[in-house]
């Protein structure tokens, strides 16, 4: 089965991990700082705090935002549920706003209509790797007294008008799951240009432990002493995985170029086919493509999906609208809230897209899609 996404591990990655295993540090060591510096460079200089997963990154970002019960988060339904579940863990209320069907990203106008005086965070998602309209969300957040969080699980390496993702929001989260643009097996990061948010993020991912005597409430009792002033969790990414990430990030530019080549090859083959809708790209956006979200006739989507899988092409659907899940239904959310997102979901199929996908494999996918869908 040809998967829709997979990791790209080379000998340099293996050597980096082996070197970390042979070192004195398996965790909380120098590889962590090295990887965070590399992430910061990709993110345009914003500080990076590594964590154990993309979900942990979101949880940590909401902690940095000081999210509390009664706060509202305006968000998109076109995402994996972790974008919302980690905010719900703090007792926040989700307010779903509809998407722009051109890109699959949260529509700024729909988000603006959903903002209230209880809005604490506006949480967007860079769907498929395409950056959101960050300047509009920056403005909306500033006007409403909220924080702008960009869930960039798909989009490390993307830019908007030349500005890297990571510099565009108050808080940005990355995922390093194997199917993502770079991997640490499991891992993630919180990126922010704001020192206050970085401090809160680091405290939360480190179990809330404070060792700086200047910040302690009690008198320092010695080199062993620390305080926990707010609860946190152990979301520390080990040196072994950070070593893999630093090695991977050195090839990020090449991976971006190859993903764009595959994306272009699909576009050229499918352009003009009245049965297909190609992914949209906004002017000024240079995505690091994580997905190729092709859209087909909704009534035929399941049959097309099943037949492609029968032919050995491991297509996927991204995503089930978040509020369709029973956990949200039980809170009172109903289908029909975001019609653009629901129509997008009904039509979407993600085709294989990863850096090591060969041209003949891309052509195999194209041939089968066109044969099944028709011209």
UniProtKB/TrEMBL annotation:
GO terms for molecular function: pyridoxal phosphate binding; transaminase activity. It comes from Falsarthrobacter nasiphocae. The active site is at 180 (proton acceptor). The keyword Protein biosynthesis does not apply. The modification N6-(pyridoxal phosphate)lysine is found at residue 180. One of its GO terms (biological process) is polysaccharide biosynthetic process. PANTHER family: DTDP-4-AMINO-4,6-DIDEOXYGALACTOSE TRANSAMINASE, TRANSAMINASE. This is dTDP-4-amino-4,6-dideoxygalactose transaminase. InterPro entries: DegT/StrS_aminotransferase, PyrdxlP-dep_Trfase, PyrdxlP-dep_Trfase_major, PyrdxlP-dep_Trfase_small. Keywords: Pyridoxal phosphate. Its cofactor is pyridoxal 5'-phosphate. Pfam families: DegT_DnrJ_EryC1. Belongs to the DegT/DnrJ/EryC1 family.
């Amino acid at each position: 089965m040809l998967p829709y996404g997979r990791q790209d591990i080379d000998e340099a990655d293996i050597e980096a991990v082996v070197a970390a295993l042979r070192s004195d540090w398996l965790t909380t060591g120098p590889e962590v700082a090295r990887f965070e510096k590399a992430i910061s460079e990709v993110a345009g200089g914003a500080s990076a705090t590594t964590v154990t997963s993309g979900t942990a990154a979101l949880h940590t970002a909401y902690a940095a935002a000081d999210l509390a019960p009664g706060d509202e988060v305006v968000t998109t339904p076109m995402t994996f549920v972790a974008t919302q579940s980690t905010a719900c863990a703090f007792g926040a209320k989700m307010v779903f706003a509809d998407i722009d069907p051109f890109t699959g990203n949260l529509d700024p106008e729909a988000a603006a209509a959903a903002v209230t005086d209880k809005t604490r965070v506006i949480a967007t998602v860079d769907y498929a790797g395409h950056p959101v309209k960050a300047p509009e969300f920056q403005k909306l957040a500033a006007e409403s007294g909220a924080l702008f969080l960009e869930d960039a699980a798909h989009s490390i390496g993307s830019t908007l008008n030349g500005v890297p993702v990571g510099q565009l929001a108050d808080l940005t989260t990355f995922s390093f799951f194997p199917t993502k643009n770079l991997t640490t097996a499991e891992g993630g990061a919180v990126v922010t240009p704001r020192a206050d948010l970085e401090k809160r993020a680091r405290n939360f991912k480190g179990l809330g432990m404070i060792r700086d005597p200047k910040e302690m409430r009690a008198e320092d009792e010695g080199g062993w002493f620390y305080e926990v002033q707010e609860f946190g969790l152990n979301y520390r990414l080990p040196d072994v995985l950070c070593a893999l990430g630093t090695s991977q990030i050195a090839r990020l530019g090449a991976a971006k170029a190859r993903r764009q080549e595959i994306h272009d090859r699909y576009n050229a083959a499918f352009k003009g086919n009245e049965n297909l809708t190609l992914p949209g790209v906004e002017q000024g956006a240079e995505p690091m493509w994580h997905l190729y979200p092709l859209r087909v006739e909704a009534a035929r989507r399941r049959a097309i999906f099943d037949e492609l899988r029968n032919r050995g092409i491991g297509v996927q659907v991204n995503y089930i609208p978040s509020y369709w899940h029973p956990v949200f239904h039980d809170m009172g959310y109903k289908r029909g809230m975001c019609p653009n997102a629901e129509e997008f979901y009904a039509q979407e199929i993600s085709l294989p897209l990863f850096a090591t996908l060969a041209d003949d494999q891309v052509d195999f996918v194209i041939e089968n899609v066109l044969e099944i869908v028709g011209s």
